[in-house]
Amino acid sequence: MIKKTLTSVLSALAIAGVVSTVSTPSQAAGGAEIPSQSWSWNGPFGTFDRAALRRGLQVYAEVCSSCHSLDLVHYRDLGNIGFSIDEIKAFAIDYEVEDGPDDEGEMFTREAKPADRFVGPFANEQAARASNGGAYPPDLSLMTKARKNGANYIYALLTGYEEEAPDGVVLMDGMNYNHYFPGNQIAMAPPVDDDYVEYADGTSTSKEQIAHDIVTFLAWTAEPELEERKSLGLKVMIFLVVLTGMLYGLKRKIWAKLH
Amino acid sequence: MSSSPIEFKNPVLKWVEYRLPVFSFIDSSVGGSYPAPRNLNYWWNFGSLAGIILAVMVATGIVLAMHYTAHVDYAFDSVERIMRDVNYGWLIRYIHMNGGSMFFICVYIHMFRGMYYGSYKEPRELLWIIGVFILLAMMATAFLGYVLPWGQMSFWGATVITSMFSAIPYVGDALVTLLWGGFSVDNPTLNRFYSLHYLLPFVLFGLVFVHLWALHVHRSNNPLGVEAREPEDFIPFHPYYTIKDLFGMGVLLIFFLGFVFYAPNFFGEPDNYIEANPMVTPAHIVPEWYFLPFYAILRAFTADFFMYWPVAWLMSAKLAGVLAMFAATLILVLLPWLDTSKVRSNKFRPINKQFFWIFVADCLLLGYIGAKPAEGNFIIIGQIATFYYFFHLVVLVPLIGILERPKPIPESISTAVIKSAE
Ligand code: HEM
To answer: What's the gap in Å between B107 CA and the centre of ligand 1?
Structure first.
């Protein structure tokens, strides 16, 4: 019976698996097969590589933030990944937020504080489109969860540009050829290339490394709870396995009287 | 097996019991005075598992409601605030999110169990019918809840499903306007859906209560399908089935929380992490996995589907699809009468047993098709599977009941069980 139960549970899983692999709305036709990278946060014991997170923040701040917002993240959140409060203050101070009204009823701008959200590049969607030839650079906070196979997809996207479109493909005005973007034509120009940034820790600044770092950072912005989730999960699982084992023993013992 | 109500020694219990016999009620419902067949197998665990999940859903739902904002401008962000800033908010939300899927897994297994062992037959028809309404209420609750985070799938799923009702003649458009609270899925829609999503689980509680009430009248069926009669056929629910249900709960929690902690978005759609945007339609709009078989039936009805021809003069293919989708569930109400066999358990029905498994496979196939885009062969396969779904229930089940020669049935549970143990 247990075996049968297991089969049914597995087939339920199989259906769910089918569902999650076939319904890939955000990955419509036209994207190539996405290669898998190895990520430090994969697996049941995975954690975010702290050095990669720091470099990723730098890439975001120096490159992506000129077009993409990160609305769901607060500067204070950086404290959870090893930034000191002074570092956070020093980072935030470079940004300006509108505040107010003050005692005179006037709005004013001030330097950002740790309690503020990451300041985005544009006041609104229209302004963002106006600066990007009509295309809208989406908010990146949840990007790795908002795309199928998110982390691998973004890595592939960032490193998957081609300078010339293949023969027979006519690019629309302002579009770039990308192997992995659905439809292959993306309005975002190649955002990273070798040596786009300078790392203080001496890490290589190859295009691949930069992409790896920003994806690590974005995986954290999308799932800031990941490390806590996995470590709590381990404790809960151990507890449940022991408890269930004991309940099974008890069940056997009680039912033994029947036979 | 103790049949007389228990005596309490503790003076407090005695005092309460004398005024409100709550302890003997518990004892006779899930305690030592409730007799259960001695031979229930693990498939009988899924009812109690569904009940446990219902309680978990209500508990986590109430906490979520404390932090959620039902407004189109804030809903998505308020959910993300729960994920990021509320203490253990991510845990509460992921439990609630995956709990929906667990609920349907348990209830679908629970229902197939009922079909396999003929639990819907006399005298448990009403118990079964209440079960069908529980399923409908669950579906409504799950659909409404999925709209609340106000992601792209929330919005477009709500748009597609509510628009279905516009196919109803005369009143359709008015009905859709009423559902929406306006002329499109918008803030009023979100607010009424939230209100109803909070209400329906309590309706579910009520239905489950009546379900259990009916269960307790004639008690559980069992894998042999012969009514338990002799005292040796029964064992007291407590401690035998309380411990067995507790063990089952342990297994469920490992499975359930395994998803919550290690693959929390396994059952979800990436698109729902994009905020709802009425101007951008997702490439494929797919419902949650537990609706997929019904979605496949809905979409099977195209103008050239032969099941549509007989009613083509009467209604649009769209309306026929909507009706067929509801009929797919409601027809189960009739199952106790569609099944013409007096024998309950498929253990003794060699032919029907084969067809039972084909039916299960057909339901899985419908689920698979429901996830596929409606194009090419998927349409044809979906139509065949849809036809077979109804063909099985309306034609095969009654026919097999008449034609099949069942195997010999044991006289009683105890003779069968105790003999085989020797
Ligand atoms: C909220 C969802 C549900 C809950 C909490 C629930 C709960 C239960 C419980 C605790 C039992 C007794 C244990 C067992 O036999 O497994 C039971 C029995 C039963 N349920 Fe449900 N149920 C639910 C939904 C359904 C549905 C959707 C159906 C079918 C349409 C159904 C049909 C039955 C039948 C026929 C029995 C008697 C089974 C037998 O004695 O062999 N239930 N239910």
So the answer is: 8
Are B294 and B363 within 8 A, CB to CB? no
Indicate the number of domains in chain A.
2
pLDDT at residue A19, rounded to an integer: 38
**CATH code, domain carrying B291:** 1.20.810.10
Instruction: Note whether A64 and A183 are same-domain residues.
Output: yes
User: How far is the centre of ligand 1, averaged over its atoms, from the C-alpha of B94 (Å)?
Assistant: 26
Nearest neighbour of A240 by CB, restricted to B253, B264, B372: B253
Region for A234 from its dihedrals, namely left if φ exceeds 0, alpha if ψ lies in -120 to 50, beta otherwise: alpha
Q: Is the peptide bond before B310 cis (omega within 30 degrees of 0)?
A: no
pLDDT tens track for B356-415: 999 999 999 999 999 999 899 999 999 999 999 999 999 999 999 999 999 999 999 988
- Listed in sequence order, the residues at least 6 apart from A257 whose beta carbon sits closer than 8 Å to its beta carbon are none
> What pLDDT is recorded for position A259?
64
In a domain, A167, yes or no: yes
Task: Report residue B32: phi and psi, to 5°.
Answer: -70, -15
Residue A219, SS3?
helix
| Judgement on whether residues A165 and A232 belong to the same structural domain of the protein | no
Mean pLDDT, residues A107-121 taken together: 97
Q: Which of A25, A44, A255 sits opposite B283 (nearest CB)?
A: A25
Q: Are A179 and A192 contacting, i.e. CB atoms less than 8 angstroms apart?
A: no
* A26: pLDDT strictly greater than 80: no
Interface probe with B: pick from A251, A255, A257, A258, most Cβ of B within 10 Å: A251
The pLDDT score that the predictor gives to residue A257 is: 84
Do A54 and A64 fall into the same domain?
yes
Label residue B66 exposed, middle or buried (CB < 10 Å: 0-12, 13-18, 19+). Answer: exposed
Q: Are residues B131 and B167 in the same domain?
A: yes
Full residue range of the structural domain in which residue A232 is found: 226-259
Q: What pLDDT is attached to residue A27?
A: 42
CA–centroid distance, residue B361 to ligand 1 (Å):
22
How sure is the predictor about A161, in pLDDT bands with cuts at 50, 70 and 90? very high
From CA B101, how far away is CA B91, in angstroms rounded?
16
Number of A/B CB contacts below 8 angstroms equals 141
- In this structure, the answer to whether residues A157 and A250 fall within a common structural domain is no
CB B319 within 8 A of CB B168: yes
Look up the domain containing B14 and give its range: 1-33
- B235, A240: Cβ pair inside 8 Å? no
Say whether both A145 and A216 belong to one domain. Answer: yes
- Domain count of the fold of chain B: 2
How much is the ipTM here?
0.92
Q: Which of B49, B130, B207, B215 to mutate to test the pocket of ligand 1 (most atoms within 8 A of CB)?
A: B215
Q: Are B132 and B332 in contact (CB under 8 A)?
A: yes
